[in-house]
Amino acid sequence: xxxxxxxxxxxxxxxxxxxxxxxxxxxxxxxxxxxxxxxxxxxxxxxxxxxxxxxxxxxxxxxxxxxxxxxxxxxxxxxxxxxxxxxxxxxxxxxxxxxxxxxxxxxxxxxxxxxxxxxxxxxxxxxxxxxxxxxxxxxxxxxxxxxxxxxxxxxxxxxxxxxxxxxxxxxxxxxxxxxxxxxxxxxxxxxxxxxxxxxxxxxxxxxxxxxxxxxxxxxxxxxxxxxxxxxxxxxxxxxxxxxxxxxxxxxxxxx
Amino acid sequence: xxxxxxxxxxxxxxxxxxxxxxxxxxxxxxxxxxxxxxxxxxxxxxxxxxxxxxxxxxxxxxxxxxxxxxxxxxxxxxxxxxxxxxxxxxxxxxxxxxxxxxxxxxxxxxxxxxxxxxxxxxxxxxxxxxxxxxxxxxxxxxxxxxxxxxxxxxxxxxxxxxxxxxxxxxxxxxxxxxxxxxxxxxxxxxxxxxxxxxxxxxxxxxxxxxxxxxxxxxxxxxxxxxxxxxxxxxxxxxxxxxxxxxxxxxxxxxxxxxxxxxxxxxxxxxxxxxxxxxxxxxxxxxxxxxxxxxxxxxxxxxxxxxxxxxxxxxxxxxxxxxxxxxxxxxx
Lengths: 255, 331
Description:
The structure holds 2 protein chains of 2 kinds.
Chain A: E1 8-17, E2 20-30, E3 35-39, H1 46-54, E4 61-66, E5 69-70, H2 76-81, E6 84-87, H3 99-109, H4 125-137, H5 153-165, E7 171-175, H6 183-196, E8 201-205, H7 209-215, E9 218-223, E10 226-231, H8 233-238, H9 240-247
Parallel strand pairs in A: 3-8, 3-9, 6-7, 7-8
Antiparallel strand pairs in A: 1-2, 1-4, 4-5, 9-10
Chain B: H1 3-16, H2 23-41, H3 45-69, H4 78-93, H5 99-121, H6 126-145, E1 156-157, H7 173-196, H8 198-215, H9 220-246, E2 248-249, H10 256-269, H11 276-291, H12 298-312, H13 317-322
Antiparallel strand pairs in B: 1-2
């Protein structure tokens, strides 16, 4: 077979909360290196889907394959070791850790077990060496010893991304990477993500259509827990059902 | 001028003195020299009082490991204390005096119980965690109360001190005092190392955002459980010390009031700081000791002072000494 295996395959994924069906038989593929955007009005099931892919929510039906391996029932930390990383919608870097310690903590998570009780971890050259390199790549090296809580909002989002990439993931879940950013910071973040394009697959959840159309190779539109359409940006832009449900002036039409 | 202002100014004034930068080591040095003072002044009571202070300080340090660094508000910590005390009491009752055996059992049983309680309660968080740990402690409390062979509700006296051959004689006050002092130093040193270690970072990370820690690849449960067992075991050892201190064990040692005392010591001293629990133990037991002979309604004075301390310095005595925001032992 010549076909490339998808990096992430989501099959008939279903999650119910009582009577509410949050995701209803969702199918989704992400190819290696692809940026796949997930859009949809509030309540469409995007957050639930992210929760299931990351492992925080247990699906009621369907399967999730990561790199060909069934991870449907694996907890988040196991998925992380299989190459999944995520950024959080609400920036949640460790505020009372230094910037460097935030990234070295993520490196530590993939450097054997942490039942090491004695040596000072913040003076561990193995962690710090890789941490400094990572901070340089994300233009945060000047802030290395600052407390993460003292960073500006934009810097914190950058750190969030650096932490997610510390484990060299194959697939990155990006939950609203430009949320709360000003136009200039958003442009910088988009540029950063464009520069990283191709190194790993991305599932991008984003409200801002400008960001979506700037980055996505393909777009999946979710409405009421179901896939309304999947296709490249121009196909989605011109899809009459999508226009009716979502891209029109009123975001709440299908909510 | 409010209480907060007064305490704030007091704190600022105190901080200008260079000595407070070394407040922790100074307090420890004073505790270390206390037997000398007791011998010179002939005041033997001060030594037995300070011994009790040291034992509670170790227990508070052990609670601080999970409450302060690990964000696990265990409200049943006195249970482990009680287990350690009963291990000594029960074995002594059956004629086993060897300290090596008694204390090994105290440590082993409190470790196993901590493993079970931790494994069951660490699934919950915050308020629920408080309630679950409290429930387990009360369970053990009632178990001790109904153990009629061992005195039931009245408790029982311990016939003699744990025996360590020629190594150390626990019946000798200064020797016992220095054993407790050495164990406090060891507990502080261990906490300091753990807090900075890879393990400690996972613990502190999980306290601040467990969900994120799991997402970056840490199976946090097993690390938190390990910390819970270390902490419970340390408290168990304190119980063995306490049984030797007063030669008596009773269910009241593991009542929720005792757990509350420990909680208060850690909070008032400074949650998640190295010396905070020591300050807390010294302050609370010291206040109690000062006020009690004064009036039988001493709690009426004691409680407002505690409230003022908490309001005036929410981050504890440690921050009052070290300055706002700064906190020794916090990395």
